[in-house]
Each structure stands twice: as structure tokens, then as C-alpha cells.
Amino acid sequence: MTHPPISALTTHLGYWLRMVSNQVSLGFAKKLATMDVTVAEWVVMRELYDVETLAPSRLAERMGMTRGAISKLADRLLAKALIARDASPDDGRAQTLALTEAGRKLVPQLAALADANDADYFGHLPPTERQMLEAVLKTVAERRDIRTIPVE
Q1: What is 12-143's CATH topology?
Q2: Rounded to whole angstroms, how far apart are CA atoms 70 and 54?
Q3: How many helices (H) and strands (E) does the chain have?
Q4: Measured between alpha carbons, how far is 75 from 52 in angstroms, rounded to an integer?
Q5: C-beta of residue 103 within 8 angstroms of C-beta of residue 82
Q6: How far apart are CA 86 and CA 93, in angstroms?
Q7: Which of 13, 50, 95, 134 reaches 20 to 30 Å from 21, CA-CA?
């Protein structure tokens, strides 16, 4: 019995995308680990950076995560004194999350690590190729309605 030919792994764009993505993510995670922050914690902090306060449910919605997952991340960041959890001024039963002063000071340092990681992996690309790669990836994300913020 003969089998039809099957494609090699390396003929799939997903193979190359995953190979690169894994390395970019691992490199970034290692950089963040030097600051005792995980990728998921960084994303939470970055989301809070541009707002005064944010309800955990709204943060979960923005990140495409469950409220339980956000609660666990918030607990870790609370333990590190990088965020604060307070009662909502509009509804005492609801809670809000906000960066502490230490968290607000740390975000630009973490953003610099993100920028350095991008430069490490993509800095060799001419601007036109970088823009093309970004446009292609955004097109795929839009077509597939991918909105969840990658955290791991």
C-alpha cells in the first residue's frame, strides 16, 4: 500500500511562525525574569499604565482572560507591591486595580526590555520588511478575529 506524499514540517508557515514566536517569547521572558516579572504580569502592568484604575472584569475582557486568571495575576502583583486593589468609588462592592508608584516606575523599564527584545530579533530587518511583516501578521489576526493578548 502506498501512501500519498505528505508535506514536510518546514513547508508550513505555522512551523516557522511558531519557531520564531517561541524564541522571541522565551527571550522576552528571560529579560523580564531579571526584574522578577513574568510576561503575563508585564501585560497586566502595561494595560494598567495608561489608565487611572481598571476593574478586574474589564481587564480580563481586554486581555481575553478569565476573571479567575486575572485575580491570580493581581494577587501576584499585589504581593510584589506593584499594583493596589481598592474598592470602586462608584460601587463599594466592586474592586479596581491600579499601579502603585513602584509599579508605575517599573513599567518604562520593562517596556525598554520589550523594545530591546524586538530589536534583538527583528532589528536586522530593513524598515520596509519589518512593516511588511507587521502588516501580514495584523492581516492574519484580523481575518481570524484574534484579539486575545498573548501572555505566555
Answers
A1: Arc Repressor Mutant, subunit A (1.10.10)
A2: 12
A3: 6, 2
A4: 19
A5: yes
A6: 10
A7: 50
Give the tens place of pLDDT for each residue, 117-135.
999 999 999 999 999 999 9
Q: Is 34 exposed, middle or buried (0-12, 13-18, 19+ CB in 10 A)?
A: exposed
Instruction: Note whether 56 and 95 are within 8 A (CB).
Output: yes
Place of cell 486575545: 148
pTM of the model: 0.88
CA distance 76 to 65: 16
Q: Give the tens place of pLDDT for each residue, 16-65.
A: 999 999 999 999 999 999 999 999 999 999 999 999 899 999 999 998 89
Strand 95-99 vs strand 83-87: parallel, antiparallel, or unpaired?
A: antiparallel
Name 62's Cβ contacts closer than 8 Å, sequence gap at least 6. Answer: 47, 54, 149
